[in-house]
Amino acid sequence: MIGALFTLLALQLAGEFIVRITGIPVPGPVIGMLLLVFGLAQCGRVPKALHGVAETLLGNFSLLFVPAGVGVLLHVERIAHEWLAILAALVLSTLITIAATALAMRAVLRRRPPREPSDG
Amino acid sequence: MDKTLVQIWVYLAASPLLWLAATLAAYLLGQALFLRSGKHALCNPVAIAVLLLCALLALTGTPYAHYFDGAQFVHFLLGPATVALAVPMYYNAARIRAMWLPITAGLLAGSATAIVSATGLVWLFGGSRQTLLSIAPKSVTAPVAMGIAEKIGGLPSLAAVLVMLTGIIGAVAGPALLARLRIDSEEVKGLALGVAAHGIGTARAFQIGTLAGAFAGLAIGLNAVITALLVPLLLPLLPPG
Fold first, then answer.
1. Which residues of B touch A86 (CB under 8 A)?
2. Pfam families, per this entry (chain B) (predicted)?
3. Which residue is closest to B134 within chain A, CA to CA?
4. For residue range B46-69, what is the model confidence (pLDDT) as tens digits?
5. What is residue A24's predicted lDDT score, i.e. its pLDDT?
């Protein structure tokens, strides 16, 4: 388990390092994630310990948002001032985004249906 | 007796232990309420936990920075968890390769729509420039959104709050909207929830099914990359403050 945790932290660190030297506008953990995808593809399997740690972290992903969410207390004044803009932007934009993603993906799926054995 | 209690409070309030434990307790309570309500969408565990903790901080007069001394241990795990998204991506590599074109179409459409519509609406409703810059990455997972907001001159802590609210809105209203649009494919539902509502949407997608969950997890990772690249590109096109 320590090895798996170390793998995740080391890749995050490598990601931060790469971002700092190259100046690419992508956050470090995302580079770390891409490095891990690449590593797993090379390795050909997911080590058991890494599977366990990943499952635990991702299974409780929403808990990890709580501390940042409580930060709403820091912005009470701003939100009181701009509540309409923020509320409208969040609600409408989130709904439009869900619809745009789903409709774009479905449109392409329909144009090029996945190969099915029955279709020859 | 009263004096002893005050002394205990003073001692506990000064250590990170109290607020770390309170964060987990509030979340457990949120989860319990969510299950008791028959998994009602409005009883979102994150929303309940945040409300409880805000009330508790307000009642005890505890500053957020002090709360964060304890809660940072939970917050820190967002980084490694983002790296761990590689694991579900790897497991679904075959399915992802087979559907790469529809996935790319959904991701690009969703990512661009999220950035443009969020910033456009803030501008339209007369919000401030800093709010506009902080809301641009709102559909991306928190650590990435905070990084993007910081890079473009927004407020990372405000971005994190907007991200959390976006996740709750997506998880609460998303499935009903997808049903309205007559989307039946689990892959499409998962991708849409993941693109629009990151980790909180993914938790919701896993309730639809494991396939939806896997596609939502994939969407968090890919959307993080695409939005991180798109925001700086779209920034010059955003309405001026």
1. 122, 127, 131, 135, 162
2. LrgB (PF04172)
3. A86
4. 889 999 999 999 999 999 999 999
5. 78
Which residue, B81, B100, B129, sits at the end of a domain? B81
Are both B60 and B95 inside the same structural domain? Answer: no
B206 and B232 both lie in a single domain? yes
Chain A residues in contact with B101 by the CB 8 A cut-off are 108, 112
- Partner-chain contact B102 A33, CB within 8 Å: no
B109-131: pLDDT as tens digits: 999 999 999 999 999 999 999 99
Per-residue pLDDT at B1 exceeds 70: no
Query: Closest Cα partner for B170 from B238, B127, B231, B219?
Result: B219
Number of domains chain B is built from: 2
Q: B208 and B163 share a domain?
A: yes
Tokens (6 digits) for A90: 């969040």
**Per-residue DSSP letter, A75:** G
pLDDT digits (tens, 9 = 90+) for B144-163: 898 889 888 899 989 999 99
Tell me which residue has tokens 């409880």. B52
Mark whether B120 and B30 lie in a shared domain: no
The band of B199, judged by pLDDT with boundaries at 50, 70 and 90, is: confident
Range of the domain at B152: 88-237
Tokens (6 digits) for B70: 């304890």
Do B187 and B141 fall into the same domain?
yes
Identify which of B29, B89, B88, B22 has the alpha carbon closest to the alpha carbon of residue B59.
B22
Looking at the structure, tell me whether residues B94 and B140 fall in a common domain: yes
- B99, B199: one domain: yes
Whether residues B211 and B108 share a domain: the answer is yes
Do B121 and B136 contact (CB within 8 A), yes or no? no
CB contact under 8 Å between B196 and A98, yes or no, is yes
Kindly state whether A58 is in contact with chain B, defined as any CB-CB distance less than 8 angstroms. yes
Point out the domain boundary residue: B81, B109, B124.
Answer: B81
Q: How many helices (H) and strands (E) does chain B have?
A: 13, 0
